[in-house]
Automatic annotation (TrEMBL), chain A:
Protein name per UniProt: Amino acid ABC transporter permease
Domain ABC transmembrane type-1 residue range list: 232-426
Membrane topology: Multi-pass membrane protein
Family assignment from sequence similarity: Belongs to the binding-protein-dependent transport system permease family. HisMQ subfamily.
TrEMBL record, chain B:
Domain ABC transporter intervals: 25-259
Pfam families xref list: ABC_tran (PF00005)
UniProt keyword list: ATP-binding, Nucleotide-binding, Transport
Cross-referenced SUPFAM superfamilies: P-loop containing nucleoside triphosphate hydrolases
Origin species: Pseudooceanicola sediminis
Protein name, entry field: Amino acid ABC transporter ATP-binding protein
Family: Belongs to the ABC transporter superfamily.
TrEMBL record, chain C:
Record-stated family: Belongs to the binding-protein-dependent transport system permease family. HisMQ subfamily.
GO biological process: amino acid transport
Originating species: Pseudooceanicola sediminis
Upper lineage: Bacteria, Pseudomonadati, Pseudomonadota, Alphaproteobacteria, Rhodobacterales
InterPro entries tied to this protein: AA_ABC_transptr_permease_3TM, ArtM/GltK/GlnP/TcyL/YhdX-like, MetI-like, MetI-like_sf
Protein name: ABC transporter permease subunit
Localization of this protein: Cell inner membrane; Cell membrane
Any one annotated GO CC term: ATP-binding cassette (ABC) transporter complex
SUPFAM superfamilies: MetI-like
Membrane topology: Multi-pass membrane protein
Pfam families reported in the protein's UniProt record: BPD_transp_1
Keyword Plastid annotated: no
PROSITE patterns referenced in this protein's UniProt entry, alphabetically: ABC_TM1 (PS50928)
Molecular function per GO: transmembrane transporter activity
Top-level lineage group: Bacteria
Length: 438, 265, 418
């Protein structure tokens, strides 16, 4: 149809046009500022107001920040020092941080043993490496990751080395029982038997084994009481434990919630909705006042452990909902594909469903992690000395009565670094996994 | 919509397509309901080893449901299904046994997107058949060569075209060394130019004597490969016959109507 | 349908409990039930044993006893002679008060921040990102404690307002006084008040408030009627009459007239002696909690709003523009209805989070349900089991109501989708 037209306006280009530079006003810093800051009068006004705000903020904050003193030993001392150098506006009294930072980090942990929590933190990163950067670390390091919880707990609380070893042996017992029993009955039943065997080991046998072994070979390091834990040591201990256990429990709860068995489903829904319906602080009240009432008379186990249990349960319920979202995003086809190949339920879950569902849920999982870590501050309300609890104590101290910005900036900054890097890591992971599979 | 894809395919050597007397699948008096909707009504079907059966019929006629009952992706509520001498009951061991004997290809491939092509193919042999990994990889490469995509073994399904994905799905089923293959509309989600490559693979499989049941709208394929065509409507088997007779001389009115709709344009 | 698979030919074997799909599910459910019952039985036995050892018996009779403590921020009458139950109720109202205030403020801030984060202005978008990241990545409890500390330490004491040349002045045309003891704002007063309405002996409800609400409700109903008439006219003739000014007048005028009849005026706080008198007094704890919760939740709401708007593909806007719709119509007819569907469910769950986070009131001494029932009442009566259980149930009820609303909304938009 174009033929008729082509004959009336015959045109042949014999020289090709060279590429030209775009107008100057649309490229370079000028062009950038034009499109991003000054496009139209409204935008220009907004930019100017925002700029004034930022400048004003910096003009007030920066001098305060920099001109502060690091040497004062009390708030009055600090004010005198400020007055002495003629600092009218006043500066930050960083002395409180210099004086109290070991406390904010370790609580009342014995100072000569600080190396232990530090070592645990370093080991934590080593243990995390094979999980965080799975493609760049040898798989054998996962062995260390499995041992880390026991090693870490031993280093933190101290005591005889036979404690973590017998605890670890519980898993070995479970594994041996599982592999023996699974030759006779199916996987689900043998798993149940294995769990029972492990529980029996931990609750009854392990105690005697520890006593016996300690008598033979008393290998022990100085033990530290739970009440001496505090500061970020406490937050991280509780946070990491809750994070570590909430994922597997959450996965089980999510599977239970999607189960075809009405009773199992009802139990899981009830648990999840109950936990999600009440504030964490009420669960911590349960940990601090009620848990000992629920347990056999005479049991009086550690407050940190009790808080860890409740925080883990709390996090699991949220994790379950995140994982459930990931599961719901998977099509029916994946289940059918697995079924048609003859994979059983647990094989299909482990090999086909979970790897995909968890990948989809990464953002949700990480934001649950972040939430849990932030929520560890709530323990200050049941009089444990996490950073916020310590901040309250420091502010109640006569020499630092009235200080707040410096303390909260310090604490807030550390929380920010942890949480922000977690969320950035999840973004990185999402991007990496996306490109890997397309 | 169909015959054109077949013009270039070489004719099949009829001698290769022997049907033995051995019964592979026996379905008798099978019924199934979705709620109160009667999807499958009194299905009786005997499939001998080496048979290539094509099931045709309008959508919603229960074709897919029927073949999905054969490996219990759907549960039938009455009647009997015997696959390879094993009756499909509620016994999990029987279900597992039948599923590992019967391969299945789906309309949407259902490959596992988080695993490479090779991992897709070795997964079930390793975990269900407990084959050593090395052997599983060798088998997988053998079948991938057969479906002509060995060079894609380390890619992910998302990186392949639809036709390639369906061929991987066929290879994945073959790696379990199944004695029976079920195809649930294997070409309906494919672009026209990819249909042929999948059908060629299926023809090759037929030539090797595989027992096959295919739900498909590819009538050219049916004419050429099938030894029996079954027409289903409203959950019942309405007509079954040899392909020549079925296409040239349909007996029931419904079959005639269906064939005129599907071929007459 | 009654037809089932033929009765099993082989006789029943024990292994069928595990391997037969018909029995398998029942077997596992019974196992689960037994395990759960055992667990609960064990817990109950332990609890009974422990309570027995402590000489306590579970009972809620303490709720009827006199509380004996004062609550300084309250919405209804309460004195230290009132019962624990009434104290708990005062606490519940306080929880709901701070939750409602927080949700409203958080939504406003969140929507503004969320929209600004998407703005083409680089500087503003960056500032908003800093805000969001700063609040999201630091615990809410720290923000609450920090707000409280700022209010207490940095605000002037009431005495600073005294004298001819005071150090501090009242804000907003001398109507609001911000002191380190709390904030005083003008209170609504009626010179020709209709008095109070007594609900039993428990509560007084202002008839003025009821009257205003009734009039306002009726005006909104009429205004909606006008809008419906306009719709009908548009459908019939294709032209839509301009009605927004009539509707505005219908809503505003009757209420204004009623207020005038009731003699509405504001009572301003005034400095009397060492403190302020008159006006409504909001304690620091309430302000700190409200501010911190709003700012913290707003950061999350901003992300939800942003994600909701981004979720609407540019194709939708382009399609609407290609049909010739103008920008405001594109927004109201195409983008917003779709964005709302994405935004509202997570928004409601943020409201739920805010309500649950309001339990942190106990850290700054605001007397909400946690502070009264699970705080002082618990300590005074020693009834840990009953108070914590009751408190949990109250929160659970609030949560269930909020998620009920969310499900109702989800079902409604799902129906629209079909």
């Amino acid at each position: 149809m174009a033929d008729t037209h082509a004959e009336t306006v015959l045109f042949v280009r014999d020289t090709m046009l060279p590429q030209q530079e775009p107008p100057l006003s649309t490229v370079g810093p000028v062009g950038w500022a034009r499109t991003n800051l000054f496009s139209g009068w409204l935008n220009t006004i907004i930019t100017i107001v925002a700029l004034l705000f930022v400048i004003n903020l910096i003009a007030h904050l920066l001098p305060w920040f920099i001109s502060g003193t690091w040497n004062a030993t009390s708030l009055n001392d600090c004010r005198e020092m400020m007055a002495a150098v003629g600092n009218e506006q006043g500066g930050a009294c960083w002395g409180v941080i210099r004086e109290r930072w070991p406390q904010l980090m370790f609580g009342f942990y014995p100072a000569e043993l600080y190396w232990r929590p530090v070592l645990v933190l370093v080991l934590l990163f080593v243990a995390l490496a094979p999980i965080l950067f799975a493609d760049r670390t040898p798989t054998r390091m996962l062995g260390f990751t499995a041992v880390f919880p026991f090693l870490g707990a031993w280093l933190l609380w101290g005591g005889t080395i036979w404690n973590p070893i017998t605890a670890l042996l519980g898993f070995v017992v479970g594994y041996v029982v599982f592999s023996l029993v699974s030759k006779v009955v199916n996987a689900g039943v043998s798993l149940f038997v294995a769990v029972v065997a492990s529980v029996i080991w931990w609750t009854t046998l392990a105690g005697y084994v520890v006593l016996g072994l300690s008598a033979i070979a008393p290998l022990a390091i100085a033990s530290v009481q739970s009440r001496e834990f505090g500061g970020f040591l406490l937050s991280i201990t509780i946070g990491v434990t809750a994070i570590m256990f909430s994922l597997p429990i959450g996965i089980l709860l999510a599977l239970g919630r999607r189960s075809h068995l009405p009773l199992v489903k009802a139990l899981c829904v009830g648990f999840i909705e109950f936990i999600r319906g009440v504030p964490l602080i009420t669960l911590l009240f349960v940990a601090s006042t009620l848990l000992n009432i629920f347990l056999p008379p005479g049991t009086n186990f550690d407050i940190i452990l009790r808080v860890m249990i409740m925080t883990t349960l709390f996090a699991s319920a949220y994790m379950a909902e995140v994982v459930r979202g990931g599961l719901a995003a998977l099509g029916k086809g994946q289940y059918e594909g697995a079924d048609s190949l003859g994979l059983d339920y647990w094989q299909a879950q482990r090999l086909i469903i979970m790897p995909q569902a968890l990948k989809i849920s990464i953002p949700g999982i990480v934001s649950t992690f972040i939430g849990v870590f932030k929520d560890t501050t709530l323990v200050s309300i049941i009089s444990m000395f996490d950073p916020l609890g310590l901040a309250n104590a420091i502010r109640a101290d006569a020499s630092w009565n009235g200080i707040y910005w410096e303390l909260f900036i310090f604490i807030g900054a550390i929380f920010f670094i942890f949480c922000f890097s977690m969320s950035r890591y999840s973004m990185y992971l999402e991007r990496k996994l996306q490109t890997g599979h397309r | 919509m169909t015959d054109t894809a077949f013009d270039t395919t070489p004719a099949i050597d009829p001698a290769a397509l022997k049907v033995s007397d051995e019964v592979a699948i026996e379905i008798s008096n099978m019924n199934k309901w979705y709620g109160s909707f009667h999807v499958l009504r009194d299905i009786d079907l005997t499939v001998h080893r080496g048979e290539r059966i094509v099931i045709a019929g309008p959508s919603g006629s229960g074709k897919s449901t029927m073949i999905r009952c054969i490996n219990r992706l759907e549960e039938h509520q009455s009647g009997k299904i015997i696959v390879d001498g094993t009756e499909l009951t509620s016994d999990l061991k029987n279900i597992d046994k039948i599923r590992s004997e019967v391969g299945m290809c789906f309309q949407h491939f259902n490959l596992f997107p988080h695993l490479t092509i090779l991992e897709n193919c070795t997964l079930a042999p390793i975990w269900v058949r407990k084959t050593p990994k090395k052997e599983a990889v060798e088998t997988a490469m053998h079948f991938l060569e057969k479906v002509k995509i060995p060079d894609q073994a380390n890619k992910y399904p998302g990186q392949l075209s639809g036709g390639q994905q369906q061929r991987v799905a066929i290879a994945r089923s073959l790696c379990m060394k199944p004695r029976i293959m079920l195809f649930d509309e294997p070409t309906s989600a494919l672009d026209p130019e990819m249909i042929k490559e999948v059908l060629d693979t299926m023809i090759e499989l037929a030539q090797e004597g595989m027992t096959m049941i295919c739900v498909t709208h590819e009538m050219g394929f049916a004419r050429q490969v099938a030894n029996r065509v079954i027409f289903m409507d409203q959950g019942q088997i309405v007509e079954q016959n040899e392909p020549e007779e079925f296409f040239n001389n349909p007996r029931s009115e419904r079959t005639k109507l269906f064939l005129s709709q599907i071929l007459g344009h | 349908m009654t037809t089932l698979t033929d009765p099993p030919a082989e006789s029943f074997k024990l292994s069928m409990l595990v391997y037969d799909t018909r029995y398998r599910s029942i077997t596992f459910q019974i196992l689960a039930l037994v395990a759960v019952l055992l667990l609960f039985g064990w817990l109950t036995m332990n609890t009974a044993q422990n309570l027995n050892d402590l000489g306590k018996e579970p009972s809620f009779s303490f709720l009827g006893e006199s509380a004996g403590y004062d609550i300084n921020q309250r919405l209804i009458d309460y004195s230290s002679q009132s019962t624990h139950l009434r104290a708990a109720f005062v606490g519940l109202l306080n929880t709901l008060l701070v939750a409602a205030m927080g949700c409203a403020t958080a939504t406003v801030i969140g929507v503004i921040v969320g929209v600004l984060r998407l703005s083409g202005n680089w500087l503003v978008a960056r500032l908003m990102t800093v805000y969001v990241e700063m609040f999201r990545n630091v615990p809410v409890l720290m923000w609450i404690v920090l707000c409280m500390a700022i209010l207490i330490e940095a605000m002037p004491p009431p005495s600073a307002f005294r004298g001819d040349d005071p150090d501090a002045t009242m804000k907003l045309f001398d109507s609001v006084a911000i002191t380190n003891r709390g904030v005083y704002i003008p209170e609504p007063l009626f010179s020709r008040s209709l008095g109070d309405f007594h609900v039993g002996a428990a509560f007084d409800v202002s008839i003025n408030l009821i009257a205003i609400l009734i009039v306002l409700g009726a005006s909104i109903f009429v205004a909606r009627g006008i809008a419906r008439r306009a719709d009908a006219k548009q459908e019939a003739t294709g032209l839509r009459p301009r009605t927004w000014h009539t509707r505005l007048a219908v809503i505003v005028l009757p209420t204004v007239v009623l207020l005038a009849i009731l003699g509405f005026h504001l009572g301003y706080p005034e400095l009397k002696g060492f403190n302020f008198a008159g006006g409504t007094y909001m304690r620091n704890s309430l302000i700190a909690l409200w501010l911190a919760l709003s700012l913290y939740t707003a950061a999350f709401i901003a992300e939800i709003v942003r994600a909701g708007i981004l979720a609407i593909s540019s194709g939708q806007t382009e399609a609407a523009a290609a049909l010739g719709l103008r920008n405001n119509r594109i927004m109201s007819l195409v983008v917003l209805p779709q964005a709302m569907r994405v935004i509202i469910p997570p928004l409601i769950s943020q409201y739920l989070n805010l309500t649950k986070n309001s339990s942190l009131a106990i850290a700054v001494g605001y007397m909400d349900i946690t502070g009264t029932l699970m705080g002082i009442t618990l300590n005074q009566t020693g009834r840990e089991l009953e108070t914590v259980l009751l408190g949990m149930l109250v929160y659970l009820a609030i949560s269930l109501i909020i998620s009920g609303v969310m499900n109702w909304y989800n079902n409604r938009v799902k129906l629209v989708e079909r």
